[in-house]
Amino acid sequence: MNLNPRIPRRAETSSQPDYQTQFLPRLGLTIAKYRKQAAFTQKELAEHLQVTVTHISALENGRRGVSLHVLYRIAGVLAVNIAHLINESDGKTTTESDEKSSY
After folding, report:
1. pTM
2. Local structure of 90: helix, strand or coil
3. How far is CA 21 from CA 2, 63, 79, 84, 90, in A?
4. How many CB atoms lie within 10 A of CB 74?
5. What's the 3-state SS for 36-74?
6. How far apart are CA 13 and CA 63, in angstroms?
């Protein structure tokens, strides 16, 4: 709650998805989708990223945030543009030709 009248209040509603309740679960589903399209198991993806299977599972289930660095590495391993991971997680769709662009 903003008690100082000189500091503008942030808008209560936003067009952006809430990070923990909306964005992370969508991001996880998007990562899982591309992982399956690339025919990787969670274990194989974890090995490529040098993280644990538990880490990958938590990401895919929206229980864990992800750094930009790890997201970039995931995109590289799955050969998908990082923007697709983020945009689809925001509820935006991509075209098939967009998916073929470099990461």
Report:
1. 0.72
2. coil
3. 23, 9, 27, 20, 12
4. 25
5. HHCCCCHHHHHHHHCCCHHHHHHHHCCCCCCCHHHHHHH
6. 23
> Angle CA(50)–CA(55)–CA(58) in degrees, nearest 5?
155
d(CA 89, CA 27): 5
Tens digit of pLDDT at every position of the chain (103 positions): 556 667 666 655 556 668 888 899 999 999 999 999 999 999 999 999 999 999 999 999 999 999 999 999 999 999 999 999 998 877 665 554 444 444 4
Name the nearest CA neighbour of 97 among 88, 78, 84, 82.
84
**CB-count burial class (<10 Å; 0-12, 13-18, 19+) for 21:** exposed
Spell out where 1-103 has E strands. none
